[in-house]
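Is this the right way to post structure tokens for a design question? Let me know if I should format differently. Anyway, here goes:
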């Protein structure tokens, strides 16, 4: 079976978890004898083809005003103009279809579509190809992908986002199989009227290639008397970084440290570093996550937005590291409170400082969580991921022969 996988970014253009998850999937399918070819965007002026770890990758030159994945802050209206052009970008779709005709796949699997245009689905269906879509963000509801504005989650589309949401809802009827990388993201789309005509609906959690060296829990990262917390990811308001930094203000002057690994808008990061200048807070920038994990007792995921499924949780559990996570999005689906980590409500004042204080007082030892974390991580194996997606692909292909009864799996 040959699969054409579309995603807005792919290696080496990595700035978030979705492109990592798509690569893990492509590699896992390759290992199962499936022939995936990836179609993605590039900031370069020319379309090119390359091979990434044995997977053929087609890099399409972006056909829009600017490359939006560089971490730079742009005005909301400039981003709105980008998305308005993207919504009806017949040029990028035509270029993508030329590549698709060259691939001649048995099935098309789309993921994050920003920059590739939602018109892509119409063009795929015109070729009568089976179409699977994985929800990894809220792009169909919100062109800014997060449904988060002015420090709050959006309960309904903003006025300028509403036309895009209507287009996304109508276009979703063309998808024959939809997969959510968490129950939360799939259910939120279904509740809003998306994918009404889609017969096959599944939830497939992402996979992690990070693994502990042995099947036994790793020892504590050091013989230190201090507790090491770590935040890994983009440094943005919706990720909860400010709430986390504020929570450290109530902690004692010693006995802990917080590693912050990631980057964001330079002016925003500089402002945070100025406001939270404790010697216990160590700003590492963008570095290899493995170098952070080996020093870490607890990983922090303080999301304010409904993050579908943070990869950092899967990676931490795969190494036996417990996670302190907010109850937003898919976090609480994979972090079991007091078993594989601790879950808090970011809307409850003092909830996060309370947990951090309890940890420093010895109430929650990371050692007691490690075995459960490793056991829970079994579901995050790439071979499981490939098997689940192959089952969706095969069921969809069979449905073309009239053998599938509509229903929901997963």
């Amino acid at each position: 079976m040959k699969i054409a996988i579309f995603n807005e970014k792919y290696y080496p253009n990595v700035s978030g978890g979705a492109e990592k998850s798509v690569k893990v999937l492509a590699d896992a399918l390759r290992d199962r004898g499936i022939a995936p070819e990836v179609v993605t965007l590039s900031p370069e002026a020319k379309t090119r083809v390359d091979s990434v770890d044995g997977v053929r990758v087609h890099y399409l030159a972006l056909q829009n005003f600017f490359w939006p994945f560089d971490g730079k802050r742009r005005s909301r209206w400039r981003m709105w103009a980008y998305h308005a052009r993207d919504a009806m970008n017949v040029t990028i779709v035509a270029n993508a279809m030329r590549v698709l005709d060259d691939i001649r796949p048995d099935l098309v699997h789309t993921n994050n579509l920003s920059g590739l245009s939602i018109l892509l689905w119409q063009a795929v269906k015109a070729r009568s190809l089976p179409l699977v879509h994985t929800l990894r963000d809220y792009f169909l509801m919100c062109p800014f992908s997060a449904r988060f504005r002015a420090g709050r989650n959006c309960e309904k589309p903003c006025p300028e986002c509403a036309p895009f949401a209507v287009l996304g809802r109508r276009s979703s009827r063309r998808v024959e199989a939809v997969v959510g990388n968490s129950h939360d993201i799939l259910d939120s789309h279904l509740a809003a009227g998306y994918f009404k005509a889609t017969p096959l609906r599944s939830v497939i959690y992402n996979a992690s290639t990070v693994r502990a060296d042995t099947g036994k829990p790793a020892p504590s990262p050091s013989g230190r008397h201090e507790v090491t917390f770590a935040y890994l990811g983009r440094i943005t308001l919706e990720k909860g970084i400010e709430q986390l930094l504020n929570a450290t203000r109530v902690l004692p002057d010693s006995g802990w440290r917080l590693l912050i690994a990631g980057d964001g808008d330079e002016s925003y990061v500089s402002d945070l570093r100025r406001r939270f200048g404790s010697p216990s807070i160590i700003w590492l920038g963008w570095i290899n996550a493995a170098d952070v994990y080996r020093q870490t007792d607890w990983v922090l995921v303080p999301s304010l937005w409904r993050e579908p499924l943070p990869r950092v949780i899967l990676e931490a559990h795969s190494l036996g590291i417990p996670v302190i996570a907010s109850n937003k999005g898919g976090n609480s689906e994979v972090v079991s409170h007091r078993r594989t980590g601790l879950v808090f409500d970011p809307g409850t004042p003092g909830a996060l400082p309370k947990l951090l204080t309890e940890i420093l007082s010895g109430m929650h030892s990371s050692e007691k969580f490690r075995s459960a974390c490793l056991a829970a991580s079994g579901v995050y194996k790439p071979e499981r991921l490939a098997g689940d997606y192959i089952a969706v692909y095969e069921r969809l292909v069979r449905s073309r022969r009239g053998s599938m009864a509509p229903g929901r799996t997963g």
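Format looks fine. Someone answered above. Worth noting: DSSP finds 14 helices and 17 strands in the chain. The first strand starts at residue 2 and ends at 6.
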